[in-house]
Protein: Signal recognition particle 54 kDa protein
Amino acid sequence: MVLAQLGGSISRAIQQMSNATIIDEKVLNECLNEITRALLQSDVQFKLVRDMQTNIKKIVNLDDLAAGHNKRKIIQQAIFNELCKILDPGKPAFTPKKGKTSVVMFVGLQGSGKTTTCTKYAYYHQKKGWKPALVCADTFRAGAFDQLKQNATKAKIPFYGSYMESDPVKIAVEGVERFKKENCDLIIVDTSGRHKQEAALFEEMRQVSEATKPDLVIFVMDSSIGQAAFDQAQAFKQSVAVGAVIVTKMDGHAKGGGALSAVAATKSPVIFIGTGEHMDEFEVFDVKPFVSRLLG
Ligand code: GDP
Structure:
């Protein structure tokens, strides 16, 4: 790993520290405080930053630093590794298998990019030879079905929804049944969101999940939600078995530090990121570039 991989403020902090003649606890603390500030600015949850600081202090041996070992390298490595560790919940997400039916339910607040991400996810798999299908179980937002229909039509992906039916559970079940009969291997259920976390939303998610028995529930979060990420992710996890996270709008200014909170709250990995409004602006999540950006 090279210094350039670490972001501006972090590399500056390490640079300043390595310029100091004596590396004592005070100098290391100053450096860690600088890094803490940068991570908080990137929306990493305060508790995670504090725990990371404690871990780094344990890992970084001041005697080694004082003895003139490559200080920069030791600290860089420790920070980088700690952040990567936070993003690794220790077990991979359920991976659907081509040719075998899987139901994947998407959850997230309104505006998080859920509907857009459903199509991106479907399109990504379709390009690889899968037979995906989209079910619109969002009966709350006027225009939700039209949006999904438009996206699906553009991508030539079969879809199911209703302008009349107001029960999201009924639509979800009908859609899943229909596409199972049609031998689709990836049935994607888009659900309602609300502007804020509220009991009715979580109850609805619980019911849709219970009725459709998804193999995977994906929590979609907007990279710019900042410190709200932990509570939001946790609230969804408490009502449905969230098993993966997708972070959207990574093409914007936000560094996406909330993703660390979402992983911590759901104990699930980030699997993809959204990098634009278009269908193909979607990437498999890669820990190292993400952490580098976070530190910038
Ligand atoms: P939903 O309410 O959660 O279903 O959100 P939508 O899918 O309707 O998305 C809300 C807005 O965010 C729309 O204008 C999308 O085009 C936009 N959006 C979604 N994902 C991304 C992304 O990765 N990057 C950018 N720039 N915009 C996105």
Remarks:
- Residues 108, 110-116, 193, 248-249, 251-252, 274-277 surround guanosine-5'-diphosphate (CB under 6 Å).
